């Protein structure tokens, strides 16, 4: 159970930070917060922010390994775009769920 509205807001900002400080904000909150639930949300949001960061190098490797073929470039862009969209939607949903928790 969260202790205060401030804890809810900070926890939800960890998820929403994918739009303004994807790695920095959850890490700072994780190390600064003394509330266990807030640090748990910071950890989860940080992990979800890592997925698109892993997809970028994989997409680049696919493009280089395929010899710059048009199909691999389009496939990599589609996969990265879809993954980024899914992660963004997931973070928005989680941030809203944290805010409306009682």
UniProtKB/TrEMBL annotation:
Keyword Glycosyltransferase: no
Keywords, alphabetical: Membrane, Transmembrane, Transmembrane helix
Recorded topology in the membrane: Multi-pass membrane protein
Highest taxon above the source species: Bacteria
Principal subcellular localization: membrane
Annotated compartments: Membrane
Keyword presence, Membrane: yes
TM helices/strands, residue ranges: 12-33, 45-64, 71-93
Protein name: DUF4870 domain-containing protein
């Amino acid at each position: 159970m969260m202790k205060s509205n401030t804890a809810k807001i900070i926890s939800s900002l960890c998820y929403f930070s994918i739009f303004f400080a994807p790695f920095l904000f959850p890490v700072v909150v994780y190390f600064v917060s003394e509330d266990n639930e807030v640090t748990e949300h910071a950890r989860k949001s940080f992990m979800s922010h890592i997925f698109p960061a892993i997809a970028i190098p994989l997409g680049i490797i696919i493009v280089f390994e395929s010899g710059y073929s048009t199909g691999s470039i389009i496939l990599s862009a589609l996969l990265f775009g879809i993954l980024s969209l899914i992660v963004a939607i997931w973070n928005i949903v989680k941030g809203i769920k944290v805010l409306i928790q009682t």
